[in-house]
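To: structure subgroup
Subject: Chain for Friday's discussion

All,

I'm putting the inputs and outputs inline so they're searchable in the archive.
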Amino acid sequence: MSADAAHTLRIGELGRRVGVSPELLRAWERRYGLLEPARTEGGRRLYSAEDEHRVRAMQAHLDSGLSAAEAARLAVASEPPAALATGSGDALEREREALRQGLDALNADAAHGVLDRVLSAFTLDTVLAGIILPYLRDLGERWERGEASVGQEHFASNLIRGRLLALARGWERGDGHSALVACAAGERHDLPLIMFGLALRNRGWRIVFLGADTPAATVAETADQVAPALVVISAVEPEALRRETPALKALARDHRLCLAGGGADPALARALGCEVLQGDPVAAAASV
């Protein structure tokens, strides 16, 4: 089999995503036929999102107490068709509601169970754009109406943030272009930025993540050090970016700079000499 666009992961990257050593992945491939890699012209194995799905499904079966052979058999047999990996509206709505119920009840086990299930059944883009982002929008709207408590909002945000950062482990490694991502000074909302980084990583980029409340001078210093192909600064409100106009102008002169989030005003971007990333974090990553 020759390599194609669907097979993009080397075994080391696949192992980092799922938390399994390359040696064990090779053993599962050899013994149980769990993985179906393509090969480059040079003979190097490349793995697909379907391979990642089967590994995650096998891990879930192992966690339930099944033997490795039985877990592998079920993982291969339960592989979803391509349409399911994209996620139908009804399926995504059911999972969003299950996630909402678990998080509203402050039930970490239930919420993690939903996230385990959707991460094994759907592509990462689908989980982010079809489940987590709509849930977070709904949570924010319910909080503004007084229908969700501060405690529920903090519990849900922290649990989801922890899961996303676990997926981000090792995202700075690899051979692709690097992206330096940060929240503007004073900006604490880094969940969209983490999701953007994950979606970009899913497209082969390496991520240098500075996180919340990062002054433009710090971003510039880091950019000069790591020479990224892209610098992204996120903010919910334009004022967080306007406060650092001189530093951002200087940053844009030396590096490809993009603004993201609700504060990414096109007029401000033109004044700074940079770009705006449109849409949600997954759409923004797809547009880079």
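Points worth raising on Friday:
The CA atoms of residues 108 and 204 lie 31 Å apart.
The two ends are 30 Å apart (CA to CA).

D.
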